[in-house]
Amino acid sequence: MPKIASARVIVTSPGRNFVTLKVVCDDGTTGVGDATLNGRELAVASYLADHVVPCLIGRDAHRIEDIWQYLYKGAYWRRGPVTMAAIAAVDMALWDIKGKVAGLPVYQLLGGASRAGCMVYGHANGETIADTIAAALDYQRQGYKAIRLQCGVPGMASTYGVSKDKYFYEPADAELPTENLWSTAKYLRVVPELFAAAREALGWDVHLLHDVHHRLTPIEAARLGKDLEPYRPFWIEDATPAEDQEAFRLIRQHTTTPLAVGEIFSSIWDCKALIENRLIDYIRATVLHAGGITHMRQIASLADLYHVRTGCHGATDLSPVTMAAALHLGLAIPNFGIQEYMRHSDDTDAVFPHGYRFADGMLHPGDAPGLGVHIDETLAAAHPYRRAYLPVNRLEDGTMWSW
Ligand SMILES: O=C(O)[C@@H](O)[C@@H](O)[C@H](O)[C@H](O)CO
Ligand SMILES: [Mg+2]
């Protein structure tokens, strides 16, 4: 049995910051895990290096479940994004090692493929409705079966989801948070117009999605859901902040637009009531921020009982290691729904060579043993950490709001 001989934390910034854990076994087998927490990266790096790595040395790398329980219960302080991202990194690395030792891709260890590939959605955005439609048409030409639409709000200088770059969206754009202004009324006018124009231009054979990014109250979200119903969206995402799980009941009572939530969840306890009360349709928690493949599989199993499918977060701040892990899990579980796919920069792809590939609107994790993703440590060292924060939002009168 491979024993963990050492583990190191690699912080690199090939266009944006990433925290990676590399676990090395006494037989030379290595595994990688992603521990990136956008804007709070060094907290997880310290949690791992100072508090987790010393507990791993000498352990049997094959005992994935036991090590998960050891780190979760053993910390005494449970849950939270820092703890769960750190546990996730260990968990991903151990699945990677187990796959390499077995000579099998991780999805085979999880029960084998349940489908040909994982349907993904691209992030089409633009300052205007016309620009956004042009970007969406481009995704459609590339074979995407699902596209998320985000456009600027007239009268607002900048808003979540709109990028100067066509494909690449990187919101963590400054050493201190950029301040955006927000108007719900203006936003609620533009989104239905965007969807009407999109159906006109793209037709009805493509899934259309939208990210509200936590900026509406429950009753405002209910209004948006109703207004979008004629355009049959695949989902609206993070319609209202989900600390208040009961808030989704109110949205649900008013609209049949499917609801997705959970990219900031860190454990099954954040979504248990949402799932058991059938208040959502897609769970967006990820292997990275929700405790790794081991815990995400548990969340997916609970969700499956209630017809909730996965729609995991896949923004640029989740490294290719997370993307690979998410694809192995997504390929294997019965209730996979869709996977977000925001492409990384060329620099990021070079630091993390990976085997997953895009064809016909789907990603496949590939058949290399383990996760099929590596870190080029020499290249990583050439991209030192730079502090970068997400923006914040204020209402027009200066009140702090959700971004
Ligand atoms: O769905 C998404 O991709 C977003 O909500 C993210 O871009 C989110 O803003 C970032 O991951 C924050 O780090
Ligand atoms: Mg989102």
Automatic annotation (TrEMBL):
UniProt KW keywords: Carbohydrate metabolism, Lyase, Magnesium, Metal-binding
Pfam families given in the database record: MR_MLE_C, MR_MLE_N
Mandelate racemase/muconate lactonizing enzyme C-terminal domain span: 129-258
Catalytic activity: D-mannonate = 2-dehydro-3-deoxy-D-gluconate + H2O
Cofactor requirement: Mg(2+)
Enzyme class: lyase
Stored SMART domains: MR_MLE
Entry function: Catalyzes the dehydration of D-mannonate. Has no detectable activity with a panel of 70 other acid sugars (in vitro).
Family, per entry: Belongs to the mandelate racemase/muconate lactonizing enzyme family. GalD subfamily.
Protein name per UniProt: mannonate dehydratase
Record organism: Sphingopyxis jiangsuensis
